[in-house]
Amino acid sequence: MDSSSSTSTRRRMRSGGVAIGGMGLLAAALVACGSSKEPDKRCVDRVTLEKLNNRECKSGSSGRGGHAAYYYGGSVSGNKVSGGSFDKSAVTRGGIGGHSSSSGG
Fold first, then answer.
1. Region (Disordered): which ranges (predicted)?
2. Could you report the per-residue pLDDT of 15-55, keeping only the tens digit for each?
């Protein structure tokens, strides 16, 4: 009888270990998905700060008379951007929250 009780204890411990290992794997996957170092980018008219269609910023395109450029970070309100920068290096992105901070303009 003693050997059967130790066998059932070992089985329970294994399933607990699998659950804990699975949780660690899930946590690692979530952190990896949310930790991109790239800030949000939008195609914007440099003069009016209007959000444009991304194809106007594609390389080789001179959309909006050469005024189309990528704007990093910030937010969009009423089709106008604010709080970000045209200089990608001036904007950093936080981990899972996706909060951006910026300077310049």
1. 83-105
2. 555 556 666 666 665 555 555 677 889 999 999 999 998 88
CB 65 within 8 A of CB 5: no
Query: What are the structural domain ranges in the chain?
Result: 1-34, 41-101
pTM for the full predicted model: 0.52
Tally Cβ neighbours within 10 Å of residue 88.
15
Judging by DSSP bridges, how do beta strands 41-45 and 92-93 pair with one another? unpaired
Q: What's the pLDDT tens digit per position in 77-101?
A: 999 999 999 998 888 765 444 444 4
Residue with tokens 């310049």: 104
Q: What angle do CA 58, 59, 60 make, to 5 degrees?
A: 115
